[in-house]
User: What shape does this take?
Amino acid sequence: MVRITRVYTGTGDEGETSLVDGSRRSKSDPRLEAVGTCDELNALFGMCLMEIRRIPPHSDGGSSSTIKRVQSISNQALPRIQNELFDLGAELACPPSQLPEGMVVLNDNQCSVLLEEMDAWLEQLEPLTSFILPSGQSPESVIHLARTVTRRLERRVLHLLETEGEGAVRPLTLVYLNRLSDWLFVFGRWVCSCLGNEEALWKPLGHRGPESGIASLVRKQSESDKDFKQI
Assistant: This one.
C-alpha cells in the first residue's frame, strides 16, 4: 500500500514535476495536461456522487424508492470508475514502455462492463427523438459536465499521441474514454428518467420560430417594479 507522510516536496516550485519513471517534465507538457485533466474528471465524478447522495427523499426529487435505487447504483458505479480514473492517471504519467514492472493497468474488462451497464439502462429508456441540451436538475447537469470533460481528456490524449508519436499511450486508453463518455450520457438519461425529470431537447433553428429575445420582458419587469413601489 502507498504510505504518504508529507504532501509538499518543493520539487515542483519551478514549474516541473516528475513522471512515474522519474523523468522531469514541465507541468504544461502534453502528458501532464492529460494527467491533470484525468484528475479533474475524477473530481467531477466526486461531485456527481455528492449531488446524487443529497437528493431529498420526497416528491421534489421523485419517489423515495426510486431515489434509493439511483443512489444505490451510483454508490457502487461511481467510486469504481473513480478508482479506474486514478489507475488511468497513473498510467498516463509515464510512457507505456517505462511503466513500473508489475503495475496493473486497465484492460478490456473495464470497457466491457461499461457497455453492459449502458445496455441495461437503455432497456429502461425511451429512444431519443432529438439531441439533449446539457441541462436539467442538479445531478443530471453535473453528469453532463463530467461527460464533456471526458471528451476533453480524450482530446488531450490524442494530442499527446500526436506530440510523442505512436506508443505514447496504449490504444485501449482511447477506447475506454470513448466508452466512458457514452456511459455518462446514458447514465444521465437514466438518472433523469428515474427522478421523473424532463429532458431538455434541442430544437433546430428552423423549428424555433423568430427570435425576439428577452429585452422586452426585462423592461416589463422593470416597469412592474416601479408600479409596485408607487403603491
User: Anything to note?
Assistant: Residues 16-230 form a domain with the Hypothetical Protein Ta1238; Chain: A; fold (CATH 1.20.1200.10).
